[in-house]
């Protein structure tokens, strides 16, 4: 283990010291820092999307600190250590890359792999499924979808559910019926709006989003990533609107929708 990693681990031990440690860090639990872990993961993705590599280094450090935090709590409870985490993931990766390590030995490479990316993915899934045979309960006790975390972001979770269902043949063969389903769901949403039933509107809106995520899956697009890029684009264009409005010595609230739309189209023409 590198000296830098040892120092980081020692820092965490000090922060959690019962007597001399930080009062905030001492009282944290797995659950209390879970939200921070998710936040740090999104900040890593944001830095990657912006190609801000200076901040990517910093954000990866923040994410690593989360792992160190969990490992320290677990070690205090005598559950596992950081070394256990590192050993476990190394063994898993060796197991799942037999085309690189045919003997499961990190010191011994095999012959250059001739497998395509699709074949590697299929092999990965077979190995993963075999691993789970020894860890999951019988199908009478567990749902096929139970391994997908309900805490996962909704769009990502929808795609995971759809991929799992597709493995047993519950899927459309191409995008054409997906488009038809989207139109059907939009019609049902419109009817729910006419009924003025908010619970029904929410239900139908969920169906629309689920079907849209299914379309994204069929198009090999990650819907959460695509949406995030659109969010960034909207921020960029709206920021240009603010600049244009300010140049007129006005506030956004002073402008009509027609004016704001005109500035929006200008931002688009400028390539923003």
UniProtKB/TrEMBL annotation:
> Known EC number(s)?
3.6.1.9
Enzyme superclass (EC)? hydrolase
Segments forming domain NTP pyrophosphohydrolase MazG-like: 28-101, 180-237
In the UniProt record, does the keyword Hydrolase occur?
A: yes
Q: Quote the CDD domains the UniProt record gives.
A: NTP-PPase_MazG_Cterm, NTP-PPase_MazG_Nterm
Q: Give one GO molecular function term.
A: nucleoside triphosphate diphosphatase activity
| Keyword set, alphabetical order | Hydrolase
Q: What is this protein called?
A: Nucleoside triphosphate pyrophosphohydrolase
This protein's species is: Marinomonas colpomeniae
